[in-house]
């Protein structure tokens, strides 16, 4: 907990972001709980209902580069306030939806708001407060946000049971206005508070510019891992069933994944500042291809499935932290917001594309098709992380001297 002792203001910022990120990620998880109700009322197939989430991620990705200048010029607080206001009409449009056009329009609006408020904005705000020491704060935040589905799935079920899914949309719109917006307005920092040195306001870095090729490697590694994690997370139960598990067994194993992922994030958080995002990524990333190879050669043995869930859950959980913190290794406060906004485009597009693509591979070629592609992507990610480890600013500087 050294990062809290070194700057007590982080505790208040983390509390604000923990609440608002839980609300943000939890509320957009509506289809997971009320998907069949949405399909019945709107005359859509269930896959079409879940395509709303893909529209959300694509919109978030397309909007992210446009927000880079806004984050740099106005700071995360103002951008996230505006994003919250933009997202509210999305739930109102969803409430009034009677046909597919309004349904998908609602997800476009929610994606526009989410690009400013979900994850990227939170990481930028923490970087404004803590600079390159924000890794542990991001890890702490991800411990909480990893529980969003555990909190909001039953919440959505309860609200839908009492007010219907349309009423639930209005409740969530009100939650953004009455809870998230005031927290950003009165609880979030107004601008860069401290620097990496903890003293004066942030100044442009005099360090050598990071080569474009290094940024490209960061983008590729993060995007490939996002494809693997989001895709496998979406099709995991069907993947286990394709391995020969009974539906109840597949559900039982799949339900363990979230707990293992959060536990892995906790272990990384407890490590304090002893390692950076690249080290986390190398250790966690290596576990993923090992898990996939084991599942591919085990022919559905129960013990192998259990080990797969353990390795994949731990690896994917820690890699989520690595995806958010690898840019901290290379970029200071002045460049971090721009870098994260640019990375958000391919990351969100990968998140949108991977579930349907892996589902298609699963349908056409069985579990080996989906596992084969994710195995290749995972191995390439590890190789890129090895290259990035050699390009750490400290390592390069030492080589020059």
From the spread of the alpha carbons, the general shape counts as globular
Helix content: over 70%
SSE order in H/E notation?
Answer: HHHHHHHHHHHHHHHH
Rounded Rg: 21 Å
Count structural domains: 2
Number of helices: 16
CA distance, first residue to last residue: 34 Å
Calculate the mean pLDDT score and round it. 85
CATH C-level name of the largest domain: Mainly Alpha
> Spans with pLDDT under 50 lasting ≥5 residues?
193-207, 396-401
Q: Got a strand count? A: 0
Q: Would you tell me the structural class of the helices and strands?
A: mainly alpha
CATH architecture level-2 label of the largest domain: Up-down Bundle
Q: Approximately how much beta-strand content do the residues carry? A: under 5%
Account of the 3D structure:
- Keywords: Membrane, Transmembrane, Transmembrane helix.
- This is MFS transporter.
- It is a single chain.
- By secondary structure, this protein is an all-alpha fold.
- It folds into two domains: 1-187, Up-down Bundle (Growth Hormone, Chain: A); 212-391, MFS general substrate transporter like domains (Growth Hormone, Chain: A, Up-down Bundle).
- It contains 16 helices and no strands.
- Helix 10 (212-242) runs parallel beside helix 14 (333-365) and helix 10 (212-242) runs antiparallel to helix 15.
- The chain is globular, with a radius of gyration of 21 Å.
- The two termini are 34 Å apart.
- Residues 193-207 and 396-401 have low confidence and may be disordered.
Give descriptors for this structure.
2 domains, 16 helices, disordered C terminus, MFS transporter, MFS_trans_sf, 401 residues, membrane, Growth Hormone, Chain: A, mainly alpha, transmembrane
């Amino acid at each position: 907990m050294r990062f809290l002792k070194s700057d007590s203001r982080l505790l208040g910022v983390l509390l604000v972001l923990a609440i608002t990120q839980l609300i943000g990620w939890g509320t957009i998880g509506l289809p997971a709980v009320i998907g069949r109700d949405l399909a019945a009322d709107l005359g859509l197939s269930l896959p079409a209902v879940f395509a709303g989430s893909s529209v959300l991620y694509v919109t978030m990705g397309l909007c992210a580069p446009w927000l880079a200048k806004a984050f740099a010029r106005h700071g995360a607080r103002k951008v996230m306030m505006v994003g919250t206001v933009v997202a509210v009409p999305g739930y109102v449009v969803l409430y009034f939806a009677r046909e597919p056009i309004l349904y998908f329009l609602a997800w476009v609006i929610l994606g526009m708001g989410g690009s400013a408020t979900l994850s990227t904005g939170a990481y930028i705000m923490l970087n404004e407060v803590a600079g390159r020491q924000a890794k542990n704060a991001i890890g702490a935040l991800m411990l909480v946000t990893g529980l969003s589905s555990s909190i909001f799935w039953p919440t959505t079920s309860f609200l839908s049971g009492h007010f219907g899914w349309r009423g639930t949309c209005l409740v969530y719109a009100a939650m953004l206005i009455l809870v998230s917006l005031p927290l950003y307005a009165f609880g979030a920092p107004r601008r860069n508070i401290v620097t990496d040195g903890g003293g004066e306001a942030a100044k442009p870095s005099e360090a050598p510019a990071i080569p474009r090729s290094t940024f490209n490697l960061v983008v590729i590694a993060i995007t490939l891992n996002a494809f693997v994690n989001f895709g496998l997370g979406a099709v995991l139960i069907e993947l286990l069933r394709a391995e020969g598990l009974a539906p109840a067994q597949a559900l039982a194993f799949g339900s363990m994944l979230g707990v293992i992922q959060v536990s892995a994030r906790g272990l990384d958080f407890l490590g304090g500042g002893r390692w950076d995002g690249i080290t986390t990524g190398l250790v966690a990333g290596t576990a993923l291809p090992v898990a996939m190879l084991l599942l591919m050669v085990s022919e559905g043995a129960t013990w192998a499935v259990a080990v797969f869930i353990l390795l994949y859950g731990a690896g994917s959980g820690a890699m989520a932290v690595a995806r958010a913190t690898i840019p901290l290794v290379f970029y200071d406060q002045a460049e971090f917001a721009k870098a994260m906004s640019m990375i958000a485009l391919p990351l969100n597009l990968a998140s949108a594309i991977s579930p349907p693509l892996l589902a298609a591979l699963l349908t056409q070629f069985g579990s080996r098709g989906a596992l084969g592609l994710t195995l290749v992507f995972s191995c390439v990610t590890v190789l890129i992380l090895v290259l990035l480890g050699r390009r750490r600013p400290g390592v390069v500087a030492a080589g020059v001297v």
